[in-house]
C-alpha cells in the first residue's frame, strides 16, 4: 500500500470517528439550519461547548501532547512538551512560517509558510502522532488557513493578493479562488454559528469583509477605523457578536454579524492582537502585544485582558512581568494554561489561567501563530485551532 493511500485511509477513518463523536454529542436541541454538510450545532447558547476541557474527539487518540511554535524569522518550528515546559525538538520548515493550523479532520497540523515578499510559499504537514514534519506542498502565499464548515475544502488566505484560495484539504490542489479586492491585508477570520458566512479582518484597510459561504461571494465591507489595524476575530458563544482585536485602537470592536454593524468597543491594552475563548466558553482572553507597530521592540507593555462574554466587560488583566509581546496561540486542553508566542522577545509564555502567573520558554526568532495539540473539539475551522 502506498504512503499516500495510507494517509487517505487514515483520514477517512478519522472522519468516521468524528461523525460518531458528533452524533454522540448531539443530545441537546440542535440549530436546525446550517451550512450544508456542516456538523450540527449541539448548543446554540455555547458553540464552544463541544471544545470544553478535555472533551477530545476519538480522532486525536495517539497524538503527542505538544506545543508547536513557528518562528517567522528563523524559518523553523520549535516543539515544546507542555508537561514540563521544555523544548524537546526543532525542525526547519519553509520561509516565513506564520501559523500552525490543525486540519478539519484533526489528523494533520499544517505550517503556513507564506515566504513574505517571495513566490515560494508552502505548507508543511506535521504528523501529530509523531511530532515530525512531512514533505512540504508548494502553495502561493499561505499566510493563514481555514476550512469550510463541512471540511471539504481548505481556505488558504493569500494575504498579499487579497484573495482566498479554496483547495483540496489533503493534497492542497487548487479548486477555485475568490478575490476580496477591498480587503488589503486579509488574514484572520471566524464563522457564523450556522457556518453560512465568514468575516475576515482587513489589516491594512482598517475594516472587515463578510463572505457568503454558500454562494461564495463577497457580501460587503465594514470600515472600523480609518487608522485601525484589525487582527484576530472570534464569535461569541451564542453566535450573535463578533469580537475583533484592533492593534492600533488598543481594544476590541463588537460587531453584530447578521446586520454587519459595529455595536460597541472594549478598550483592553496596547496592541490588542490575539483572541482565545476559555474552555468553558465564559471568557475571552485578549493578547495585547505591547506595541501598535508591525515591527515592535522587546519588553513592551504586553498584557492579557480577560473579557466576560456575558457582560461584555473586562474582568481581569495580566501584565507580562518585566514587559513582553504576547501575540498568538491557544488555550491548553484542560483550560489551565494560555499559551502565547512572545513575538518580539523570542519566547513563549505559558500563563496560568487561575493566577495569571507566567512561565517563559525561549524559542527561535519572532515566534508567531503557535498551536497547542491535541485540543478538545469535534473539528477544526483552522487558524491555530478554532475548534467546535
Overall description:
This protein is globular. The longest helix has 22 residues, at 3-24. It has one domain: YVTN repeat-like/Quinoprotein amine dehydrogenase (Methylamine Dehydrogenase, Chain H, 7 Propeller), CATH 2.130.10.10. The chain starts with a helix and ends in a 15-residue tail after the last strand. Residues 2-7 and 23-27 have low confidence and may be disordered. The chain has one helix spanning 3-24, and strands at 66-71, 76-81, 86-92, 97-102, 109-113, 122-127, 132-133, 137-138, 144-147, 154-158, 163-167, 174-179, 186-191, 197-202, 207-212, 217-223, 230-235, 241-246, 251-256, 261-267, 272-277, 283-288, 303-308, 313-319, 326-331, 337-342, 347-352, 358-362, 371-373. It contains 1 helix and 29 strands. Strands 4, 5, 6, 7 and 8 form a 5-stranded antiparallel beta sheet that branches. A 4-stranded antiparallel beta sheet has the order 3-2-1-29, with no helix packed on it. A 4-stranded antiparallel beta sheet has the order 9-10-11-12, with no helix packed on it. It is mainly β and 388 residues long.
Brief rundown of the structure:
By secondary structure, the protein is mainly beta.
Question: What's the SSE blueprint?
Answer:
Elements lengths: L2 H22 L41 E6 L4 E6 L4 E7 L4 E6 L6 E5 L8 E6 L4 E2 L3 E2 L5 E4 L6 E5 L4 E5 L6 E6 L6 E6 L5 E6 L4 E6 L4 E7 L6 E6 L5 E6 L4 E6 L4 E7 L4 E6 L5 E6 L14 E6 L4 E7 L6 E6 L5 E6 L4 E6 L5 E5 L8 E3 L15
Antiparallel strand pairs: 1-2, 1-29, 2-3, 4-5, 5-6, 6-7, 6-8, 9-10, 10-11, 11-12, 13-14, 14-15, 15-16, 17-18, 18-19, 19-20, 21-22, 22-23, 23-24, 25-26, 26-27, 27-28
